[in-house]
Write a structure and sequence with these properties.
The chain has about 100 residues and is α+β, with helices and mostly antiparallel strands. The protein is built from 3 helices and 4 strands. It has a 4-stranded mixed β-sheet, covered by helices on one side. Helix 2 runs parallel beside helix 3.
């Protein structure tokens, strides 16, 4: 039976995350880029800033997740992403990858 490799993308609020999971059970990598320091001076998450930061981080985070899992994009069978709930602009960044 062939292993199923999933690329998981999370961009619902202020963290950009990508994970590689094998057969739904084994996490091969999990890379998180946090925006806490950026939003801290505003006293909370600013949706427009969060969306822009996801755009800046998504490629780097995804490439690092693949690297840590020792995989190429061609090894990915399925891409899964958060589509709600969350900040609309932020979610669109992740959905765009799917």
């Amino acid at each position: 039976m062939k292993d199923i490799i999933v690329l998981g993308i999370e961009t619902s609020c202020d963290e950009t995350s990508a994970s590689i999971v094998k057969n739904g059970r084994e996490v091969l990598s999990n890379v998180i880029n946090s925006q806490i320091a950026i939003h801290e001076k505003f006293g909370g998450v600013v949706p427009e800033i969060a969306s822009r930061k996801h755009i800046e981080a998504i490629s780097t985070v995804t490439k690092e997740a693949l690297k840590q899992a020792n995989m190429q994009f061609s090894d990915i069978d399925v891409i899964a992403c958060t589509y709600g709930p969350g900040l609309v602009g932020a979610l669109l960044v992740g959905v765009r990858i799917c």
